[in-house]
Amino acid sequence: MADREEFYNKLKVQLEDTTTFPSKYLYKFIVPTTGNQVQEVQDLFNNGGAVINTKKSRTGKYISVSVQITVKSSDEVIQYYRKAEVIEGIISL
Fold first, then answer.
1. pLDDT (tens digit, 9 = 90+) per residue, 25-52?
2. Which end of the chain is more exposed for a tag (fewer CB within 10 A), N or C?
3. Checking DSSP bridges between strand 23-32 and strand 51-56, what pairing results, if any?
């Protein structure tokens, strides 16, 4: 868990150094096709006016989900990542 906090702290610093907010941010996730994880990701970003694209993997075992959304701060970027990490089997890119 300490590694996760360190990751988010580094991400916050990088975002604040390189991004002027509000800004569009692109999230990329990979989820298994076995459950309703794609729907969970869509529900997570639904209220923010996000543009969501999905693509099945060549083998059909996974779906990549790209989400472009306007965020107000680095804290909001991290907040979405924290909410997404509870989705079973999700991989953040």
1. 999 999 999 889 999 999 999 877 899 9
2. N
3. unpaired
Mean local confidence (pLDDT), 70-93: 95
Domain edges within the chain: 2-92
CA distance 16 to 20: 7
Contact criterion met (CB below 8 Å) for 79 and 8? no
- Asked whether the beta carbons of 70 and 21 are under 8 A apart, the reply is no
Question: What's the confidence (pLDDT) of residue 2?
Answer: 76
Tens digits of residue pLDDT in 54-63: 999 999 999 9
Q: How far is CA 54 from CA 32, 51, 88, in A?
A: 12, 10, 17
Other Cβ atoms less than 10 A from the Cβ of 31: the count is 23
Task: Characterize 59-89 residue by residue with b for buried, 16 or more Cβ atoms within 10 angstroms of its Cβ, and e for exposed.
Answer: eeebbbbebebebeebebbbebeeebeebee
CATH 3.30.70.260: does it fit domain 2-92?
A: yes
